[in-house]
């Protein structure tokens, strides 16, 4: 019971720190790079989630390394190129698998993909409605 309380308080403290307004001043660079290897906070999955994770990683790097604006821009460009390369590899991978499957297997795979898409859409919160002006 005591461990549960301690874990809960630690979680609350971390959540409070994470949601606090960030300091506008850059932190001095330190030699501790272990924070770069820690997983990013939970971000949504999918392409936009990937972008959010890459941005959070860049923010961690900036706070640790005190990156110049030029370095930030170069890293963003490298991240963009990386994302495009991964998308291309994923597309090639899917096409190669599809080429190995029989038409019946392809139909089952397509139906499964559509069912998963329907399930994801049913879980997503509805977009806020625009107010009439």
Please explain how this structure is put together.
The chain has helices at 2-19, 46-65, 69-100, 103-123. It is extended, with a radius of gyration of 21 Å. It has a domain at 43-121. The longest helix has 32 residues, at 69-100. The protein is built from 4 helices and no strands. By secondary structure, the chain is mostly helical. The N and C termini lie far apart (53 Å).
In terms of topology, how is this protein built?
Blueprint: H1 2-19, H2 46-65, H3 69-100, H4 103-123
Helix pairs in contact: 2-3
Condensed summary:
With 133 residues, the chain is mainly alpha-helical.
**Count of DSSP E strands?**
0
Please outline the major beta sheet: none
> Overall 3D geometry?
extended
Separation, N- and C-terminal Cα atoms: 53 Å
Structural class: mainly alpha
Descriptors for this entry?
133 residues; mainly alpha
């Amino acid at each position: 019971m005591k461990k549960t309380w301690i874990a809960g308080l630690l979680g609350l403290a971390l959540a409070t720190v994470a949601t606090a307004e960030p300091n506008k001043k850059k932190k001095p660079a330190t030699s501790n790079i272990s924070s770069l290897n820690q997983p990013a906070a939970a971000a949504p999955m999918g392409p936009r989630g990937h972008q959010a994770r890459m941005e959070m990683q860049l923010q961690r790097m900036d706070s640790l390394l005190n990156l110049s604006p030029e370095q930030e821009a170069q890293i963003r460009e490298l991240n963009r190129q990386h994302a495009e390369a991964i998308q291309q590899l994923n597309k090639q991978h899917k096409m190669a698998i599809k080429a190995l499957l029989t038409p019946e297997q392809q139909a089952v795979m397509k139906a499964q993909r559509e069912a998963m898409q329907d399930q994801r859409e049913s879980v997503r919160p509805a977009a806020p409605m625009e107010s009439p002006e």
